[in-house]
Amino acid sequence: MNTSNTFFGHPIGLRTLFLTEMWERMSYYGMRALLVLYMTGAVSGFNPGLGWSQVDAQAIYGIYVGMVYFMVVPGGWIADNILGHQKAVLIGAFIIALGHFTLAMPIEQSFFLGLTFVVLGTGLLKGNISTIVGELYKNLDEKRDSGYTIFYMSINIGSTLGFLVCAYLGEKIGWHWGFGAAGIGMAFGVIQFIKHRNLLGDAGMHPNEMSDKKRSRLSTYMYASLVGMFLVIGAGLMGLITVDPRFFAEKFAYFLTIVAGVYFVYLFLFAGLTASERKNLILLFLLFIGAAAFWAGFDQSAGSLNIFARDYTDLSVLGFVIPVGWLQFANPMFVVIFAPIFAGIWAYLARINLNPNLPIKFAIGLLFMALSFLVMIIAVDIALESSPVGMQWLVLTYLFQTWGELALSPIGLSAFSRYGPKRYMGQMFGLWFLASAIGGVMAGLLGGEALDGGLETISPVFSFMIQYYLVIAIVLIGLSFIIKGAKENAN
Ligand code: PHE
Q1: What pTM, to 2 d.p., does this model score?
Q2: How close is the Cα of 65 to the center of ligand 1, in Å?
């Protein structure tokens, strides 16, 4: 292979995907860091926000994150059957940029419309871009895992950039500048993708084979659902229907849980699985619960922890008050620092034959998550005595959460593809994102609950979460002794 035409020794197309995902995550995390600050910001003053209650704002944040990851499921289906993955990524990126530019308009009415565009665009982009990464390695299987590791770095470089630029502009100049910066970032991603798309070759070009008639019928369904959706949103914007955000978030959480539950039951009972495939499915079901619970804690970063940073944390560094969103740097920074260390630890443990199996790694992830909220409970206690507290508490919280992420997240998807029933492989990807969706909406509900009564109500909610993490971790550890087959060697 011609080395000048590779990307860190990988197929050159990886560079195109790396940069596209970097800009997409820059815009996603940059905007997300501003979301609850904007919604709950005072309506008057230098940078007027929307003045909404914590409960409403956190619920909307949860619905937003839940929708983003839920839409990955239809987004994958549309790419598989109608558009092909490349086209889906391109259209998705374009819609995301449109969404951020809509949010950048300084009118309140553009808010939900902008969020809807970002949701739809991310649904088309996020899952499908990861699928193309896999397709680049058709004949180079042994390199695929390290390709995904490089790709994971693009996510973290992107989010760092997003926090840096969008949080600064949004908080210090004006919210809509921050949203606009996210749009410009995504626009760079779109231009870059168009320019270097040819480097992907055939990867992600062709949707599944089917008759033109069938494809055009499926497209009609797709457009009909889109029109239906925009009619509902339009009616909402015109004030014809009003929904209570918390009520909606609760129902949405039930809906997602039922979708996941029905799917698992269907697979278990009616998909004609063998006994060992059924056993693996029980394992995946428990991992699913673990992952959903994990993301419910993880997504507090732009929710309740963001508010804790704003209201109860001293943000001055050498006389300069840093933007609230900058504290979220901690996560991507720690990922970059610790990812190789974790990989090294797993590799070492594998060499001495002590590599923990899947449920144990998930349990470790959850225990770190529990620990991170224990740190927050201490910080809240101190803040109740005298607020604001130092930044080190949130940084330590994010450190533990990142360790949890590194134990759980990189193996999660491969666990689903490895232990899922073979004939349902494509859908395992959607299932993994469904766990993130449930986690996201739960994050909003729990965050609202935590902040409902100011500082006082935070610790009871966080300790409730800790108890849950411990219970699930213990169940997973117990299970790891029963399911011996779940040995996981690759990271
Ligand atoms: N940082 C990861 C990302 O943005 C978190 C994540 C993992 C999100 C898995 C969704 C699913 O990609």
Answers
A1: 0.94
A2: 11
